[in-house]
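Page 42, continued from yesterday. The earlier attempt failed because a stray header line got pasted into the input along with the sequence. Redoing it now with the clean sequence only.
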Amino acid sequence: MYSFNNQTALITGASSGLGIEFAKALAARGANLVLVARRQGRLTAVANELKSLHGVQVTTISRDLSKPRSGSVLLDDIARRKIQVDVVINNAGFGTYGPLAGENPDRIADEVSLNVGAVVDITRAALPGMLERNVGAIINVASTAAFQPLSNFATYAATKAFVLSFSEALWGETEHTGVRVLALCPGATATEFFDVAGSDAMTGPMAAASDVIATALTALDRREPSVIHGANNRFAPFAMRFASRKAVIRLARRVMSKNRPTT
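This time it went through. Structure tokens are written below.
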């Protein structure tokens, strides 16, 4: 079992949803925390609660990670505070829903930068120290959207496919070290994600965020390269292995288009 006791975990997107649940779970296991998000007020409230409940140290940093190279700048900031990052939870991200031709190009650029660029940048900055100490953990939040191209969700699904591939490749690079890498692939989860992406992007029932975190930590203990939360979510990627790519794309298009209004 991976021990978080007295380690320091950096959690991005820590002001809501899975980020808060990760913070609660790791604080309960004795981890000190660095919580990062844009909303300082929300971060402060979470930090005060966790310090009171668990007696851990909690540092909050308000930061927009969608800006280029913001991840490495963040790690430099943390190092100047004399904080050693032992665990990274790359959770920050958002999705846009709709045909690509109608999307706001600035919003799409921020989506790719946050979902992909920040994950790579933060991981690259934190990994050398973990390898030198021969201990550490990185959990990158991907999605069940990573397993197939999704019309009307094209950019988001592609970013999460990147996160899944990137994380599994790093698992291969670190397998024989004391560093653990995991891609977490949740399906629809009861968080603020759909407040941003829109309810039309929702498919299937929503899981509790705490259950998703429990799945992630169990998989990390088992040193799995990736994990899909939920039995129903695990079935679809397996079944798609036996279908043609055209069939997979067309089926996904029907699923993702079912809630869109007709014109």
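Notes: Strands lie at 8-12, 32-37, 58-62, 87-90, 136-141, 179-185, 226-228.
Reminder to self: strip header lines before submitting.
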